[in-house]
Design goal:
single chain; mainly alpha; two-stranded antiparallel ribbon; 20 helices; globular; disordered C terminus
């Protein structure tokens, strides 16, 4: 593998006057997506910022400072968090997130012992691709509802104003994605939210009451203590054993709804590590190892669940920042994490995020949820899955219809395996039962990257 010429290598410490700027770039890249997930799921955006910061710092520690990756809110868990919250509250969603983090730890242990071949047999592209498509399409109604209807109503009431705001937000996000260059091309979500927010202000659908109250508190403070208490606040943490007892909340329904998604996100995580390895010019799947990386992701998710935040995952947006700037320093990533934690305690930032109309978030979500679905399709294409094979056609078809159709199995009065979790489970079982397992792997790119990178590295050394 050809090693890139970094502006700052992994362990280089930037000069102080550059450090803040470089870290802020990563903060801006992850900000829009990280606050969107809690906004959609009813969690606290400020807690999501804090948990992403602590999760990233834990990830850097577990990977021994060898992988410059930032972790933010995971989109794959939006649906299960929303479903669990309906019946078991936020506390139940946090229990499910913690259990998902434990699955990461178990997978990391198995990878360290047996490698990745067993994982390929359970989660080949023919299973993971359609499941990712189901995740995106399953959320599509949520995006449309937020875009078209008045918020906070018992019945859906169509609003042309809200839909227009959503479409303008969507248009701005698309424009930023297509026409922006360099670093700004990595900020389409943030640009769409800011632009949509400004347009929503002109349409009179932004409630600025909380912002005005926060500003009044700051300007009216007559002492340093009063000023600090007005500027900073304690986020709405949801802490186990302090705010609730996990044992009282636990339900097998939570397990069936949330844990299967960990298997899908682990596969996505593997793909991110492959891309990151190519960008930085190192084989992170070998050193420090995919097991360390997955363990770091799992610990970050468990930390988030202990604070009341959404599960964390490595962010492609921040990988893009690395590719453009060639600044691979983990100290820059760590700086972004510290700033994110700081921002989570700033009252005005929380007030501004809370004032964003649901139509704006709905407009952004139309594109984002579609991209999630399309990424599943891309996985099938990249791995050259042959749908001329009946086996592949059957597995994908069953997963798509069961997942999008909302099928469920009522195990007991209180336990239900539903929607995407059921689709993923049946997909795995079909893949294990039906003959011709090698046909669902395609070209094998999804898990053979480590071997290929090692060969490239050996060839490069031999040539030099």
């Amino acid at each position: 593998m050809t090693k890139h010429n970094p502006a700052l290598d992994i362990h280089d410490v930037p000069k102080l006057h550059k450090w803040l700027t470089l870290s802020l770039q990563h903060l801006f890249a992850m900000f829009g997506a990280t606050v969107l997930v809690p906004f959609l799921t009813g969690l606290s955006p400020s807690v999501a910022l804090v948990s992403s910061g602590f999760g990233t710092l834990a990830y850097l520690l577990i990977t021994r400072g060898k992988i410059p990756a930032y972790l933010g809110s995971s989109f794959a868990f939006i649906y299960p968090i929303m479903e669990v919250s309906k019946t078991h509250g936020v506390e139940g969603a946090m229990v499910g997130s913690f259990l998902s983090g434990l699955v990461y730890g178990l997978i990391a242990l198995l990878i360290s012992i047996f490698g990745t071949n067993w994982l390929m047999k359970i989660l080949p592209p023919i299973v993971v691709g359609p499941v990712i498509i189901v995740i995106g399409l399953g959320l599509s109604s949520t995006a449309i509802d937020m875009a078209m209807y008045l918020p906070g109503q018992e019945e859906n009431i169509y609003s042309g104003t809200h839909f227009m705001v959503a479409l303008v937000t969507l248009a701005l996000t698309i424009i930023a994605s297509i026409f922006f260059k360099g670093f700004f091309s990595l900020l389409p979500i943030l640009f769409g939210i800011v632009g949509g927010y400004v347009f929503a202000l002109t349409q009179g659908i932004v409630d600025t009451t909380e912002i005005q109250a926060e500003w009044s508190a700051v300007t009216s403070s007559d002492s340093l203590g009063g000023f600090l208490s007005a500027v900073f606040h304690t986020p709405d943490f949801v802490v186990p054993f302090a705010d609730f007892s996990p044992f009282d909340v636990f339900s097998w329904e939570i397990v069936f709804l949330m844990v299967p998604f960990a298997l899908v996100t682990i596969t996505e995580h593997t793909g991110d590590q492959m891309v990151l390895s190519k960008v930085v010019g190192r084989n992170f799947l070998k050193n420090p190892g995919l097991d360390k990386s997955i363990l770091g992701d799992g610990v970050a998710t468990m930390i988030a669940s202990c604070l009341g935040g959404p599960p964390n995952t490595t962010y492609g947006e921040n990988i893009g920042v690395l590719a453009i700037t060639r600044v691979y320093s983990v100290f820059v990533i760590g700086g972004a994490a510290v700033i994110a934690i700081f921002f989570g305690f700033v009252s005005m930032i929380t007030a501004v995020i809370g004032s964003i109309p649901s139509a704006v978030m709905g407009g952004v979500s139309i594109l984002l949820f579609g991209i999630i679905a399309s990424s599943g399709l891309r996985m099938l294409i990249d791995n050259q899955i042959d749908f001329g094979e009946k086996r592949n056609l059957i597995i994908a078809s069953v997963i798509l219809v069961i997942g999008v159709g909302g099928a469920f199995v009522q195990v007991t009065d209180s336990i239900q395996i539903a929607g995407m979790a059921l689709a993923a489970t049946i997909g795995v079982l079909l893949n294990l039962i039906l003959p011709g397992k090698e046909k669902g792997i395609g070209n094998g790119n999804m898990f053979e990257a480590q071997e290929n990178m090692d060969k490239e590295k050996d060839n490069h050394h031999a040539a030099s």
